[in-house]
Amino acid sequence: MSADSPDNLRHVTVVGVGLLGGSAGLALKAHDPTIRVAGVGRRMESLRKGLEMGAIDTAHLDLTEPAATTDLVILATPVGAFERHMRAAAALRVGAIVTDVGSTKAGVVRIAGRILGHGRFVGSHPMAGSEQRGPAFARADLFAGATCILTPTRQTPPEVTARVERLWRWMGMRTVRMAPGAHDRAVARISHLPHALASLLMRLPGRRDLDVAASGFRDATRLASGDTEMWRDIFLTNRRHILAAFDDFEEELLALRDLVDLGDGPGLQRFFAAAKKRRDSTVARAIVDRRVAVE
Amino acid sequence: MSADSPDNLRHVTVVGVGLLGGSAGLALKAHDPTIRVAGVGRRMESLRKGLEMGAIDTAHLDLTEPAATTDLVILATPVGAFERHMRAAAALRVGAIVTDVGSTKAGVVRIAGRILGHGRFVGSHPMAGSEQRGPAFARADLFAGATCILTPTRQTPPEVTARVERLWRWMGMRTVRMAPGAHDRAVARISHLPHALASLLMRLPGRRDLDVAASGFRDATRLASGDTEMWRDIFLTNRRHILAAFDDFEEELLALRDLVDLGDGPGLQRFFAAAKKRRDSTVARAIVDRRVAVE
Predict the structure, then answer these.
(1) How confident is chain A (295 residues) per 10-residue block, as mean pLDDT?
(2) Is the domain A183-290 a CATH 1.10.3660.10 member?
(3) Shortest Cα distance from B17 to chain A (angstroms)?
(4) Is the ipTM of this complex over 0.85?
(5) CATH number of A6-179
(6) Where are chain A's structural domains?
(7) How distant is the Cα of A147 from the closest Cα of chain B, in angstroms?
(8) B187 and A213 Cβ atoms separated by less than 8 Å
(9) How far apart are CA A157 and CA A120, in angstroms?
């Protein structure tokens, strides 16, 4: 897998040395051991673990320190902390660029344009991860085989997008470009709504019910074990699209409720068959080998 | 694992040689190769596959044939076909008993009492299986380590319940007893609602959205690939509890919607934290080793 780093990348700073940030550091160094990775974080424990694992070479409590020598900054904290770190990135040297791994994009791209300018930022959303948290779960192959969505705007210089695209491809990702708003609408439906439902599912059964639950329930609720701070920020920064997804979902739920209420057997079978057909022909086939973590 | 069959079981009839029925046959014969298993089904293809795999010894299109010599009948078709098969079981010899693997119980138990009498039936619900269908996916260890819920009533002879309990335990299951109504209420929340949500989740995203979906979405929707006829019957026979679960769910969804609408960060974090805590302390810990099938 080792190959020359794209665009002669020598020094990368990862802000937030958790599951994603730690995995980015490990992946970079697995591909080119001579790349220096600086880790920025507020928890000494995560930084120490990152150093121990070889995900980062140096540890810093503030981005200002490594900013002057870095070629690339990857923001990997919860989205709510991005603005603060972008301000610290003002000291970046000429030619250095910034990307992120955040799960919402329109707000992030807007703030980056205001603080960093449009010339040195492009948003990234690697569709990889798990409900696990912290650098201890980081792995060099977390991104391999998964999809990374890039969200350039009309103001993003094509070369900046291309550089970040090459970076993720170098780590083994398939890249897809979407406008920030289109991204946020899509992930509200394929990621944020599923997360909400998983968490809601945990609220209904009593302890005695949970005692007899099986692997189906466990898998249907897996997302609910995700990092709560990260998900709070996602729901705060994608409110409009999440509310729209909730509304569409509720309409579908009420239609299903009617089928149950009426005891409409053929209607229920059509409902289940349509969902099965759609799933079997899409995600059930395509994502088999992209699995990154199971319990 | 091999051990003498409980209660000197010599001849078992499995009605419906699919994933569960086929697995029951394989498990019985793995534990005691001298047990004879008769398979009843309407599809010659499934019966042939069951014979080939060694899940059944003889194939029949009607239960009447093996009924006269069998010690135990296991109904493993979709629940909607149980009544017809119970009528055919009228010819069972004295001392022979009937159980099932159906996912709903109050209606099944009521019909069994009417057709078979209360003396020779007890309901079973092995909480094992997967979204896969058909005898090709059957396996001798499908039930091992999973929970089987038995639903005796006050009219069920204790010895009948004990015999069926010993059977499932012999196959490696943990057994739990619940009243039929309590069972149906519980599974509406831990099984039927999750299935509905998984199917509903498949309706919102467009093809382009699905193209960038990751393992989280794939796992959250896994249940939607289940057998449509089986799920139609489950939803038709547990309407009251499913509607109640829908109503409770909708109330929870609206409360979450308010948190999102208000942008209530602390409230959202509390919501996610409560779900995470509940899951991490229950199903995430307890069901790790009971997993039976993944894609």
Answers:
(1) 73 96 96 96 93 97 92 95 92 92 96 94 92 88 95 97 96 96 97 98 95 93 94 96 98 98 98 97 72 37
(2) yes
(3) 21
(4) yes
(5) 3.40.50.720
(6) 6-179, 183-290
(7) 6
(8) no
(9) 8
